[in-house]
Amino acid sequence: MYETRERWSSRRAFILAVTGAAVGLGNIWRFPYMTGENGGGAFLLLYIAFVLLLGLPVMMAEIMIGRAGRRSPSQSLAVLARQAGSSEQWRWLGLFGALTVFCILSFYSVVSGWSIEYLIAAINGNFAGQGPAEVGAFFEGFLADPLRMTFNHTLFLLMTMTVVAAGVSKGLERLNNLMMPLLYLLLVVLASYAATTDGFAPALRWLFTPDPSAISVGVVLNAMGHAFFTLAVGACALMAYGAYMPDHQSLPRAAGAVAVLDVLVALLAGIAIFSVVFAQGIDPAEGPGLMFVTLPIVFAELPWGSLWLGLFFLLLLLATWTSSINLAEPMVAGLQGLGLRRSRATALIAVSIWLVGILSVLSFSHLEAVHIVAGMNFFELVSSVPSEIFLPIGGLLIAVFAAWVMPREMALRALDAGPVGFRVWQGVVRWVSIPLTALVLMSGLI
Ligand code: PFF
Ligand code: NA
């Protein structure tokens, strides 16, 4: 079976690669609108609790399986299961992960295409001096134009697949080195500017005062799903990156760094966006358009606003680029494991994702009112169920495999955190992460 020799060039490169996978639309687009729809502070509190209790320990579980197996997710699971004297049927978990990333990437690419549109509009100075009504109209007009949206979706997929075809560790490293520091800088500028506006105080109150009456089973399920989504955990995508992890690197330290960076980006973006929401009287529960109707307004008020806005969408695009490269990797590695050439595998995945993505594009025009299940159209379905149900199910199984099936010696070595660190991790996964995920999933499904 195909065992990979590819490695990230350093510990820092590995952390950057995982951060690149984690930081993306989840932080800047999904986090604010989910928080807006799910009651503000209560959602934020639950999401942070889930990041600590589930996201982080399961992220370690997932990466350590990849690192111990050094193959595509399915093959790593099968080989390790055999060595542990368990069933090779564990390979299906890898396939389930591939199904999950397939669904996610199909809409992720479409929404990333929205950033391309905004990047171009910003550079052209389209938003200069515009208020909520004009920006809202621009967004509506764009959504009603499936051809433009398809064009951007195509462009974004091509960008993604070019890097994937070349093998992720080469192209990605340089991109990450440049992008991450700039993104933070810009978010800090944005949040500091937001601090000088009238919306800042109500935004902080909304984000940081949890209202217990806002909590329902649905909100808890959404917060759990978002914790998995934002950390890129539960789809075996990080397992694929773990296969390239260098031998001597402590996993808890690396994963901890990623989680902190990821939450920070979400908080900065949330502060900036909700400051505009409250200053302009926009509805926090506006939905997936929230970021696209608020951010142009903040920037419009800054000197050289169009330039800042353009730079922001450029960085967002780079962030979603590195995430979608990660989303594609387990599918490509999987097909490669079946003997396909990497370029063929990439092309096959690209075409399938492109086609399914068109259904998301049309969900804003022709197929808007076509409800697939539970009153959701195609876009609403693929942007919720895979994240809120598939990722936690995948995460749960990954956790069971790492904490109960993998032999102790093997897991100890792959975690690389010493015997005490190992015992703490194993205890948390066995007695907190697994039961909690199962409980929330079950109450959500009933
Ligand atoms: N973590 C990414 C984000 O926050 O945008 C999305 C993501 C990437 C989800 C990879 C799942 C995944 F496997
Ligand atoms: Na994220």
Automatic annotation (TrEMBL):
Q: Name one GO cellular component term.
A: membrane
- Please report the record's description of how this protein sits within the membrane: Multi-pass membrane protein
Q: What is this protein called?
A: Transporter
Q: Where does the UniProt annotation locate this protein?
A: Membrane
Drop me one GO molecular function for this one: symporter activity
Q: Classify the main location.
A: membrane
This protein's species is Halomonas salipaludis
Q: Which keywords does UniProt give here?
A: Membrane, Symport, Transmembrane, Transmembrane helix, Transport
Q: Where are the transmembrane segments?
A: 12-31, 43-65, 92-111, 150-168, 175-195, 215-244, 256-282, 302-324, 345-369, 389-407, 428-445
Annotated signal sequence range: none
Please verify whether the record's keywords include Transmembrane. Answer: yes
UniProt-listed InterPro entries: Na/ntran_symport (IPR000175), SNS_sf (IPR037272), YocR/YhdH-like (IPR047218)
- Its family? Belongs to the sodium:neurotransmitter symporter (SNF) (TC 2.A.22) family.
Q: Which residues form a coiled coil?
A: none
